Amino acid sequence: MLIEIFLLLAFGIACAFFDFRYRKIPNYLSYSFLLLGLVFGVRDFAGLLSVVASLAFGYVIWKQGAWGAADARLLCAFQCFSLVFIQVKWFFLVNFLSSVLLFFVWIVLSRQSLSIGNIFSKEKRHSFALFLFLGFLAGVFGFSLLLHPG
Fold it and tell me: CA-based angle 26:106:54, to the nearest 5?
């Protein structure tokens, strides 16, 4: 499990850095992260279905213009890694919702316009990978406390 933690932190931080700094995550990084997540995380058919559901959910959000394709792959990769740590098949929804909450907190704290046009703007792309990463960590930590309180 130590290898999985290291890979998760390394790829999560790298994706967040590229997205925050350049507003683009290199394809080799997001595809590698997703492939490693599939190798380490998917162990049964139900896990595979949850990964496909997370990819479909991320695809719909991408087609709406709210984030880039790499963000959809990151959501799917985080779902794969969640299967390693907490085995919650619908965790991608928790990850997405906590990420959106963190994103809106950031919008409010940075005093940006909270209009729909600002959030879905093609010209002013927001870096969402950082929020996916932090949402994942918060969700895994929260679920770990709920599932193993002692």
Answer: 50
pLDDT above 70 covers a percentage of the chain that reads 89
Number of H helices, E strands in the chain: 7, 0
Question: What CA–CA distance (Å, rounded) separates 28 from 46?
Answer: 27
pTM of the model: 0.84
Q: What is the pLDDT of residues 15-72, one digit of tens each?
A: 999 998 998 999 999 999 999 999 999 999 988 998 999 999 989 888 887 788 999 9
Do residues 95 and 79 touch, judged by C-beta distance below 8 A? yes
115 backbone dihedrals φ, ψ, rounded to 5°: -80, 155
User: Tell me, what's the pLDDT at 1?
Assistant: 78
Residue 107: strand, helix, or coil = helix
From the list 73, 76, 10, 4, the residue with the least C-alpha distance to 47 is: 76
**DSSP-derived secondary structure for 138-149:** HHHHHHHHHH--
